[in-house]
């Protein structure tokens, strides 16, 4: 199986672009060039990688005046207007693999969680694995331990942006997968390598 997901975020420039579209949906290539200082061709390449990873969606502007409509880019949040078919397919495939694992290893399933919540966890685990995390899930406590964070050594001025982008992406994965789970909070400590995501129903 080829995993593309978070290789889309292997560049800090793509992380910046994700943060911009998470904060203000409906950005154009020109907007993103102005905000990042990158050349239009570079931004287009980054945007294409993010679309292929299922993290951005493109929509053609509806114009009421003459002129070529612009393409507007937004984060794939899983909501109706910003749902990515790529992200939806990835969530469905993760659910199928999770169901197979629970049939083969029935003791791994938490009887307390409904199947749609388990499918959300399946999608989240696969997505985080693609990001380079090694998540430890406690289905009873509804926690996802991401320690040690592979981004702990990132430039301190970048860490807040990285964390915010990853939180937005995790929220999008949960929404896209469908089900009752959402992120309640992310607990960190003085040690930047420590990160635990608290989920809520």
TrEMBL record:
Signal peptide: none annotated. InterPro entries: ArsR-like_HTH, WH-like_DNA-bd_sf, WH_DNA-bd_sf. Pfam families: HTH_24. CDD domains: HTH_ARSR (cd00090). It comes from the Bacteria. This is Helix-turn-helix transcriptional regulator. It comes from Microbacterium fluvii.
């Amino acid at each position: 199986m080829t995993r593309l997901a978070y290789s889309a975020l292997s560049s800090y420039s793509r992380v910046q672009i994700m943060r911009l579209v998470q904060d203000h949906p409906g950005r154009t290539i020109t907007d993103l060039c102005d905000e990042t200082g990158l050349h239009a061709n570079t931004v287009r390449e980054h945007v294409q990688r993010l679309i292929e990873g299922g993290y951005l969606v493109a929509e053609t502007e509806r114009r009421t005046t003459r002129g070529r409509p612009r393409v507007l880019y937004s984060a794939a949040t899983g909501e109706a207007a910003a749902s990515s078919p790529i992200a939806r397919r990835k969530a469905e495939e993760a659910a199928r693999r999770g169901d197979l694992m629970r049939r083969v290893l029935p003791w791994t399933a938490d009887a307390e969680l409904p199947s749609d919540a388990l499918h959300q966890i399946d999608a989240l685990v696969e997505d985080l694995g693609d990001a380079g995390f090694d998540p430890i899930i406690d289905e009873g406590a509804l926690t996802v331990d991401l320690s040690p964070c592979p981004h702990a050594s990132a430039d301190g001025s970048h860490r807040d942006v990285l964390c915010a982008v990853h939180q937005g992406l995790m929220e999008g994965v949960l929404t896209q997968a469908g089900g009752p789970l959402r992120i309640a909070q992310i607990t960190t400590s003085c040690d930047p390598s420590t990160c635990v995501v608290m989920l809520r129903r």
